Amino acid sequence: MPDHVVIFDTTLRDGEQSPGASLNTAEKLEIAHALELLKVDVIEAGFPITSPDDFEAVNRVAKEVRGSTVCGLARAVERDIVRAAEALEPAKRPRIHVFVATSPIHREHQLRKSKSEVLKMAVEGVTRARSFVEDVEFSPMDASRTEPDYLAEVVAAAIDAGAATVNIPDTVGYAIPDAYAELIASLFESVGNIGKAVISVHCHNDLGLAVSNSLAAVKAGARQVECSVNGLGERAGNAALEEVVMALRTRRDHFGIDTRVVTNRLTATSHLVATLTGISVQRNKAVVGENAFAHESGIHQDGILKERTTYEIMNPDDVGAQASKLVLGKHSGRHALRSSVEEMGFTLDEKQLDDLFARFKVLADKKKEIYDDDLAAIVEEELTTTPDLFELLSFHISSGNTLVPTATVRIRKCETGETECDAATGDGPVDAIYNCVNRITGIESKLVDYRIRAVTVGRDAQGEVSLRLDSGGVKANGRAVSTDILEASARAYVRAVNRVAAGLHGQRSAAQ
Ligand code: KIV
Ligand code: ZN
Questions:
Q1: What CA–CA distances, in Å, run from 384 to 377, 378, 380, 478?
Q2: CA of 101 to the centre of ligand 1 (A)
Q3: Whose CA is nearest to atom 3 of ligand 1?
Q4: How far apart are the first and last CA of the chain?
Q5: CA of 202 to the centre of ligand 1 (A)
Q6: 296 CA distance to ligand 1 centroid (A)?
Q7: Single pTM value for the model
Q8: For residue range 398-428, what is the model confidence (pLDDT) as tens digits?
Q9: What's the pLDDT at 383?
Q10: Under 8 Å CB-to-CB from 125, ≥6 apart: which residues?
């Protein structure tokens, strides 16, 4: 018996059967090499009888892969087995995987054969495969819906015929963990020669239980798990390799057994398979999803910053993922904000942090995710503030293709504390705001440069406005960011006006 759980990867066979996932031979080879580096024990490279391309792919993988057993699938019929043997001919360690359906539904409706006829096919198939290779695996397809007594009879016969591995497939994802574990345990009790074979499981995910069923079977004595990268496979897919492997690794205390997989290659392999098949991984996918090590809640972020294991059961390094990511959003707290800002190289005092936190919360209500560039933009704005003579309190715009753009702006004059409100028109909404600011502040200036750009990606990205004013030779820049480009335009302008006002003030003081 193996001292570890054998990982049998079927990404290139069952996984490739996912609608829309077909791969060419070069792509299959690339994945096979990645699986070899991952140190999976067995690579099921295809089903050679199904097409010349499948034959070619299995044959190339058999030629090139040296570190893992290479397996080809065959129905329990002569021509399939011969074709699989031919494809596997160059393999260092070849395995033929023979299957026949054993459940009453399949026997009656698909095969139209009796129990004894199916049993005979199984025995003859395994015997024929053994005439080509030492390592033969047998699968009674739809085992989880097969009569347990009959299943035990077929398993015993396949082992007698020379199968070194017997797989118990849950072909249609019908099994429930405790019942499936009982089925495996019952085979260990009722099949006399079971000690001569490795018992394997192959679970489909129709009820979302493929990984749970596989793990329950390991607990009951199974020592091979058939799985696929990213859980690809027929319909809802197969048990996800990365989940099975990391459950066994993380909870070795519970299972008492592990695999030989090099886990820090899991993320890279997952990306490769997603890219080549075109089937991307959902963000919140366990182990390899983009959010698998991302934390947004303030309480969680605080915990992670104090001690990673408060909210992480796996180390991102162990699966080859980037270090835990604190995603700043509306649930984030001051601790996470300070940490992100300091990581970006800014040092803020308590007052600056308070102001930044207030702005950050306003931004987080408007924008779901706050990227480093968003944060850098508002930090720089906070850090470069000159003493304000004018504070923009609010503005309102009425604009449209049949209206004269009109702005109403409310500004506080900081020296006197009075608030002034006025309205003005313009060529466009930005021009209307600027005219209105000029009227209230009494500072006439020429806009000599105005630029706008999106700070980050997406429709909710912040817009950054940078502009330059010239007021009778006194020049000043202004910059502001907001998810509303009119707000960014207004704030950048008022900021520049404040600098112009400070400059004019300086000129006057020098003249006195
Ligand atoms: O799901 C299944 O039963 C299979 C067999 C060929 C093992 O894929
Ligand atoms: Zn399958």
A1: 11, 10, 6, 10
A2: 9
A3: 171
A4: 97
A5: 7
A6: 40
A7: 0.74
A8: 999 999 999 999 999 988 999 999 999 999 9
A9: 67
A10: 74, 75, 76, 77, 81, 98, 100, 138
